[in-house]
Design brief:
- The complex is a heterotetramer, with 2 copies of chain A and 2 copies of chain B.
- In chain A, about 35% of the residues lie in helices and about 15% in strands.
- Chain A has 13 helices and 13 strands.
- Chain A has a 7-stranded mixed sheet with strand order 1-7-6-5-4-2-3, with helices on both faces. Chain A has a 4-stranded antiparallel sheet with strand order 10-11-13-12.
- In chain A, helix 7 links the parallel strand 2 and strand 3.
- Chain A starts with 7 loop residues before the first helix and ends with a helix.
- The longest helix of chain B has about 35 residues.
- The chains are: A alpha/beta, B alpha/beta.
- Bound molecules: pyridoxal-5'-phosphate (2 copies).
- The site of one pyridoxal-5'-phosphate has 14 residues of chain B, from helix 6.
Chain lengths: ~450, ~500, ~500, ~450
């Protein structure tokens, strides 16, 4: 086997040093009746060439985003990733290293995490950020539990603009809490201020919302804070923060979001990277790893994991979260891409996304029977179509256009005539024209 | 010593916040078409204060930083419990095929039959290797797999109309086990190990009651031993109406040698980033599918694949006998890791998988046999599985601690083993070579540890207490780090600079 | 100091011949179908004696070795005449698109219209930038481009019914210039430079006769100066019935600022691996297209592209006015480099190309201005172009040589500049920063050189003569290497080993 | 521009340090009338996204080998390249380093070259090898010139089995010599022994020949050596040497070949890597770079370029060759792939190639009207078809089969009914069956 350096001679020599005659002698503790005799009923090993062929054949059955007009978003976005990002994350020293517990020989990863934390904090307008969560949805669940720990309250309110799958994840994971979800809110008009009660640990608000609306957190945060309620702000499109006011500036207490848009490919949903930012005062209640600046024995600046007493490997059943492995490499990709963008690049990217979405919205609104529900949006908005959204999306797909996500695919409570449509810098004017034309045809 | 502070190829690198500038970018973009803004009053007014670097600066920054890391590709990475094995580059290539990397989780499922087929194929391999009925692929890492398994158990108990509030966890367990149980509101009862490092069925039986929901047992356990009474423990658990959660982090020892399902396991997560070689990437991402017994299968979370290959995404779309306990993550889990793991499985095949386990176990026992006379093996009497546990007894009286010993290994060009885990032996050193090491590599490692053990005994303690001296940094002040944590870069005030 | 000889992350690595084994392989292959051999009596009977490594061993071996190299991605690489600029990763990605990397040079041309279009587009950029009539893409590197250009010149002279046997080459020329001329059987006449480092039209005129076939002139020249009398020289050359071969290695200084064709150049190679950023790869591959004037265009070697985009592969397939002098390489040249170079050109565009030249020249002059007081600029009176030439005068009496000075730079974390070239100044140090350096990087470099120059002056000569001390190796014994060259690994005789 | 770190502020500061007011002041030596005023008439710079799109569109117009049955060889071969090879050669420290003149910080490249030289010497059965030439064809020309230097003779004989383009390259480059080429030899039956005369510097023989025949060098070498003539042995398929006797064992004095097959993609013809091996006695006449083993000031083994007095940068017009930049990175790819293969892997690979070629030959021979010309071959052979080979190849291509190379495409003197057909480990039985079927159809 090409990955196994030991030869039969090596094995014989090793067995004799150990003092046994066969490798099976090392498995004597396995109950005899449960030892496998022959091979598992699975194919035998294959050449690299063969495996590549098998997997390439599977991949070829999927319609890649790049093959034609593509407007799918709703939590994951197709952006251009500079070639240097993917090159750098494949450096052996980044790709094949473990969690940086041995700080002296992990300064590369640790400094990157410190840069990542700083970028996330600045992007969200918050004071601190952790070294990543699995993704935005699980980060949202962790945020809710953190809010409950801070406030020592058990009730949680989810706004109607929250991504339905995020809602389901919070509902599933935050098991000890009472989670109430407001009705889904396609028009972005729900009144959150009046839903706030003083027994809430937090209110969870997504902006831009699942349906694309920009929500002004400020008045809500004021009402929440007056009631001792924390505001958990959620985003699924990190690029948006280049063009809209950051949640931190509007009063959010915890900000969580999906970081996939920066540096990470679509990957059919994972791996992604959860961004998690908060206020300094709450740092000891945060989940996940933190890299901190310190000095070494010679007084040189260096970085190390810190505040580990929050974590499962130290605190066990008292930990703030059970998370261990996180999204290190995706965080690296985020950091590199963000370093390339910088403020100037991020802002231009955001405005380009917005412009392409506006063009798309205008083009689709001009299709007879189609209306755009949004007054405000960033790079994603919702259209109402005259007919079943899922069926229309299928028809579009057959014509080579991936036109968006039927809201009802994720949320049975959503009307079935809504499509969530996203555009990015990858969207061309030709794509938009084609979408509008085909949509007109299939309606 | 040098004017620059650099030392040849070891080049110091500041933070991007010290070198980048907010008006510089390494990403050129087409001009933004003029449109009527729809951002309303929420258009950003505050600066982000994010520095940018051009592409050449970016390359250098991250290449230089990377060179301050150890990596599997640099040498043996014997972190016990972490299974730092070779990461085949074929797997990276496959995961980047546009048909896998450039597909959206919410594009019509009719446009991604290959993706669903891949998930089904991966499921087949996982259930066949473990001898289990079903698998929930979506958990994002091992810890979430634990959550998934324990939630399925809780749902199954609830479905019987019962409530149980206790979970048994051996003392040697990984931190995620008690953390998971606690996160679900369970009371954790610790089970003590025997002298020989294993759990006795007797101890388990003594702790059982009808309030016990499950045991979370790692097997092979974190002392690197196969639990000899595992089947008896399983029987006792089941008899008490409880479930057997297996922590599969150590599955690499037994693939193709025995099947957890046959041993009585009801649920077990599999860290694809350990046993199935998806790269650790400096801390993640991982993937933690959880295999389930017949009895737990109905409770698997959405999304799940039906036998006919269809994907069920919503709880309200379930059919008869499908009672998912919920959803653990948006979308479908770690597709990028599924591709890599399946590439690993197809490459190895049934024969290669068994060979991997055998070589891993053989290598651990070879290290044990080669060091037993100079270091102290914590549990010498049973064969080790894929990892071998040493303790600090051999350092007694030398003034050298486990930590010092580990740091001296860094100077020798090795990543240290896992230290101070499991908690059941003092100054634990858990060595897991994996199957990826050549005999020459093992012999070099062994020789170095022998030399170090002898040096410690001979009183050369400075070699240890001052170590590492040859790494990019000497020991970091971690308490200072924790007392006044500096977690983000703060631009020095201009007047502070001037004052210096 | 350590037992292993390793020093933290700097890990020693033996040769594959010392670790690999002939029965080990890192490549699994399907079984070989049984067939009747058609190898006849020439089937191999002797062993090859090639060691194999598994994939994990291979990764480590080459990753460890790579870490003993300096690289652009690690820092400034100021090798004068080499144009070590940033290598964009987009270009690597594009070159690996299956439509470029996985096409065969001899598959039907009807199946590769995109490849031909790419070559045509590259040709358009090259001829437009240089102001020339045509380009022969196929030369494999600069030196072969020289051969191509000089052969075209020879063919043109022959077509006039003449023979000329002399080529003029300034003393400062790169070694490939005289080597190329000599390879073609020309007598090389050296042209002396003036005090100010440039060639005078007068000196050229004095050397001209009707036996002179061409002058090979590098402009900007290898002293980093633009030849101010280039147009006059060209006129004189042409008047004498000779041709002007331009060495385009230094084209990076003038792209978008002036066109060689306008200056009177008849043929000029362009090193795509310098000006157009295709990676040097530790010595190659490169690509050396040669642009040709109207008069030389008919003699371009096969393969060549016609204006209509068709590719002419054979001399006998030529039409009227197509009189190729022959063929320089199998197939069509360095397609992989064409893709990268075109990606560079499209990325830069007319504006970016000019900016690159301007920044390169600006940076060289900035270094010159910043070091002029502590080092000695060889030709201080004219502006430098993209590189600046220092000489050894500032080291006089310090006991430090140019070589020592360069080696001390290694300890400081820098790759040295080009040394002892050009030959026209003693102890030359030719510094070419390129446009890829940030101001911070330039300042760091300047500060280090200032510190070093001062240290040399202040008598700290051990810092230089013992340098490098912090690199993977100290100075290598190159004479021993040359006296009894060991060019291949020889397995030690077993008895020799035993005797040790 | 994303690749240019200087900002306008930086430039202004630098100009002032230099003491000029504009960058144009630095170009004063350019004759005023030849300074370009505006921009060149070329498009302006484009985004990475845009460039990628443009190039991808060009690439998509080409029929990649992997898209269907593929039997093209004749000097370049489609083999499977392990993913680790391409990964490793992209390591920054290999990809972006220069020729290893500064040995102390180039040990990576130097040790690789030393390994490469040893591998090439062992593979060819020779004593020494250099650090690479551009490719096989230019290596062949250099070999001829080297033979002339050694023997101080001017006449060169090229066998009829030599690749026609290699022949043309030798003819072009070896300008001072008298090159005589024997008539092209599709049947592999020419009598080379009797063509040898004692005024020859060398005879150049390709085996496996252009048409695929295996040539026994031994009797020819004996005759040549008796006449003081050197034997230059050429190969275009390096994998062959895993299955056939190496030229060194049969008496070759200089062995040159194309190394593309090991580790390097087809790339439409380049970059490739020329292998060049010879006898120790002739090493000072060799062209190209050589890495040698030596020791450093501390006595540690190390490697450095050696015998540079042969080279242009030292010897100028007396150099053995004008080569400077060579094929370093392709040599690295060769070395890595060869290290992965090892003897066991190489031999299996070679025999697999041979087996697939035998199956192909048998299948095509069974097509009515088609005959195989070869008694012996490795992975490539020649068929005679009833009709114009070039036309048939075009017809096959239209059916999705790339069936080989018409001999007459490269050599006007070759009969126009010959196709050179290659198979490799990438050839599947389905490919073979399809080729045979379609060939039957189009004839
Ligand atoms: C024994 C054991 N259990 C559980 C885990 C948690 O897995 P993960 O890090 O994938 O969440 C680990 C990993 O470190 C482990 O070693
Ligand atoms: C001035 C000059 N001319 C010619 C060459 C030769 O080019 P190449 O190395 O591409 O053959 C070089 C490259 O080193 C050079 O600097």
């Amino acid at each position: 086997m090409r990955y196994h350096p030991l030869t039969s001679d090596d094995r014989a020599l090793m067995l004799s040093r150990i003092g046994v005659t066969s490798v099976d002698d090392l498995f004597v503790d396995v109950p005899a009746e449960h030892r496998l005799d022959g091979l598992l009923p699975l194919p035998k090993g294959a050449s690299e060439m063969g495996v590549e062929r098998t997997l390439a054949a599977m991949a070829a059955q999927n319609r890649a985003a790049g093959e034609g007009p593509f407007f799918v978003g709703a939590g994951a976005y197709r952006h251009h990733i500079p070639a240097s990002v993917d090159h750098l994350i494949q450096r052996s020293e980044f790709l094949t290293s473990y969690t940086p517990y041995q700080a002296e020989i992990s300064q590369g990863t640790l400094q990157v995490l410190f840069e990542f934390q700083t970028q996330v904090a600045r992007l969200t307008g918050m004071e601190v950020a952790n070294a990543s969560m699995y993704d935005g949805s699980t980060g949202a669940a962790e945020a809710v539990m953190m809010a409950a720990r801070i406030t020592r309250r058990k009730k949680v309110l989810l706004a109607g603009g929250l991504h339905p799958q995020y809602r389901d994840v919070i509902d599933t994971i935050a098991t000890g809490l009472e989670v109430e979800a407001l009705p889904t809110d396609p028009t972005g008009t729900e009144d959150l201020r009046s839903a706030i009660t003083d027994d809430l640990a937090c209110i969870v608000i997504q902006t831009p919302s699942f349906y694309g609306h920009l929500i002004d957190l400020k008045p809500i945060a004021e009402a929440a804070h007056a009631a001792g309620v924390l505001v958990v702000s959620v985003f699924t499109e990190a690029v948006a923060l280049g063009a809209i006011e950051p949640p931190g500036a509007l009063g959010a207490d915890i900000v969580v979001g999906e970081g996939q848009s920066i540096g990470n490919a679509l990957n059919f949903g994972g791996p992604y990277v959860g961004l998690f930012a908060a206020k300094k005062a709450h740092v000891r209640q945060m989940p996940g790893r933190l890299a901190g600046e310190t000095v070494d024995a010679d007084g040189r600046r260096g970085f190390a994991l810190t505040l580990s007493t929050r974590e499962q490997h130290i605190r066990r059943d008292k930990a703030t979260s059970n998370i261990c492995t996180n999204s290190g490499l995706c965080a690296l990709a985020f950091t590199i891409h963000m370093s390339l963008l910088g403020e100037a690049g991020l802002q231009k990217l955001a405005h380009l996304n917005h412009a392409m979405a506006v063009q798309t919205a205008d083009a689709l609104a001009a299709v007879p029977g189609v209306s755009v529900l949004n007054d405000t949006f960033f790079n994603e908005f919702t259209i109402r179509v005259p007919g079943n959204a899922a069926a229309i999306i299928e028809k579009l797909a057959r014509e080579g256009v991936l036109g968006g996500v039927p809201a009802s695919r994720l949320d049975p409570a959503a009307p079935d005539d809504l499509i969530i449509v996203a555009a990015t810098e990858m969207t061309s004017e030709a794509d938009i024209a084609r979408y509008a034309a085909i949509l007109g045809d299939v309606l | 010593m040098t004017f620059t502070g650099n030392e040849g190829l070891n080049i110091a690198e500041p933070l991007i916040f010290e070198t980048g500038r907010t008006d510089v970018t390494g990403v050129d973009l087409p001009d933004v078409p003029a449109v009527q803004s729809r951002l309303g009053k929420l258009a950003r007014t505050t600066p982000v204060d994010l520095p940018g670097l051009t592409e050449p600066e970016t390359m250098r920054h991250y290449v230089r930083l990377s060179r301050q890391n150890y990596a599997i590709d640099l040498g043996i990475y014997p972190l016990g419990s972490c299974t730092m094995k070779h990461n085949p580059r074929l797997n990276e290539k496959a995961a980047r095929m546009p048909g896998f990397a450039d597909i959206h989780p919410l594009q019509p499922l009719s446009t991604v039959p290959g993706a669903l087929a891949l998930m089904a194929e991966l499921s087949r391999w996982l259930t066949t290797m473990t001898g289990m009925a079903a698998v929930a692929l979506s958990p994002k890492a091992g810890a979430q797999g634990e959550l998934a398994g324990m939630m399925a158990i809780r749902a199954a108990i609830k479905a019987r109309g019962e409530t149980r509030t206790t979970v048994l966890v051996p003392e040697s367990a990984h931190g995620t086990n008690p953390a998971t149980a606690a996160a679900l509101g369970y009371k954790v009862t610790a089970i003590k190990a025997r002298e020989d490092g294993t759990v006795s069925a007797e101890a388990v039986r003594a702790a059982l009651s009808d309030d016990v929901a499950a045991i979370m047992l790692t097997n092979p356990n974190t002392c690197g031993l196969f639990e000899p009474e595992v089947a008896e423990i399983a029987a006792a658990i089941h008899e008490a109406g409880a479930y057997f959660y297996g922590d599969g982090a150590n599955f690499n020892a037994i693939v193709g040698k025995t099947r957890p399902g046959d041993l009585g396991v009801d649920a077990m997560h599999i860290n694809l980033h350990k046993t199935f070689s998806t790269p650790h990437g400096g801390g993640g991402p991982g993937s933690g599918p959880v295999v389930l017994s017949e009895r737990l299968a109905p409770f698997a979370p959405v999304p799940f694949l039906r036998a006919d290959g269809t994907l069920v995404e919503r709880q309200d779309a379930c059919g008869e006998g499908e009672v998912p306990f919920g959803r653990l993550t948006a979308f479908h889990g770690q597709m990028g890791m599924y591709v890599r793991a399946l590439a690993y499985m197809l490459s190895h095949g049934s024969d290669g998988l068994r060979e991997a386990s055998e070589d891993a176990v053989l290598s651990a026992n070879y290290i044990k046999a080669s060091l037993a006379d100079v270091m102290t093996v914590a549990f010498p009497d049973r064969p080790a599985m894929h990892e071998v546990l040493f303790d600090e007894r051999f350092l007694k009286g030398t003034g050298v601690t486990t930590l010092d010993f580990a740091k001296a290994m860094i100077d020798e060009g090795f990543h240290p083993m896992t230290m101070y885990f499991p908690l059941v032996v003092p100054g634990a050193m858990l060595v897991e070579p994996t199957e990826s090491e050549s005999l020459a590599s093992l012999d070099l490692f062994i020789a170095a540890l022998r030399d170090l053990a002898n040096a410690a005994r001979e009183g050369d303690s400075a070699r240890f207490t001052e170590a590492p001296r040859l790494a990019p940094r000497r020991r970091l002040d971690e308490t200072r780090g924790a007392r006044r944590p500096i977690l983000t870069y703060e631009t020095p005030e201009p007047f502070a600079e001037a004052a210096e």
